[in-house]
Backbone:
């Protein structure tokens, strides 16, 4: 899809190699990257987890099955938005701070999920500490949960350090 900001387009056109009934299009755009973009707030309006994306695809297929031949592009656009907004749009936009690709270019969805798992392990162990103190008048909590948390944290730290060293960042 071509940009709507024509002033930034350096070059665009069709490639003469035909692929089926279509000609591939291309665009070269002059995008100015602001040097202080790290200090800006980043807001996310849509969520695209696997479950949400699957729900979106299901709803989109259902919407597309109701038409045989679209009369125009606006009909397809309406079906797309009627599937996208109810499934993927956040009720309240998220302001991204800390763990995002802008602040930490090494972070991935799987690392973020692993960090959440580490937090869950920590919460489980903390709950066992409170339970042991209340029920048995002992401190320290469940030693198994402590070991699970410690082992997971140690491995995750190594993974994060490997990810950080594999990315060359120039700011």
Residues:
């Amino acid at each position: 899809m071509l940009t709507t900001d024509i002033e930034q387009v350096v070059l665009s056109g069709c490639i003469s190699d035909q692929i089926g009934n279509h000609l591939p299009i291309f665009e070269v755009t002059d995008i100015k990257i602001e040097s202080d973009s790290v200090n800006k707030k980043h807001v996310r309006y849509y969520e695209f987890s696997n479950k949400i994306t699957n729900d979106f695809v299901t709803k989109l297929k259902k919407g597309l099955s109701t038409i045989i031949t679209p009369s125009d592009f606006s009909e397809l656009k309406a079906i797309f938005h009627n599937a996208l907004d109810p499934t993927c749009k956040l009720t309240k936009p998220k302001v991204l701070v800390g763990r995002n690709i802008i602040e930490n270019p090494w972070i991935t969805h799987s690392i973020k999920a692993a960090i959440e798992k580490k937090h869950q392990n920590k919460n489980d162990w903390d709950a066992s500490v409170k339970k042991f103190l209340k029920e048995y008048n002992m401190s320290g909590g469940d030693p198994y949960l402590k070991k699970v948390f410690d082992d997971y944290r140690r491995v995750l730290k190594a993974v994060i350090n490997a990810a950080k060293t594999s990315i060359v960042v120039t700011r």
Summary: The first strand starts at residue 9 and ends at 14. The helical segments are 50-65, 73-88, 109-136, 143-166.
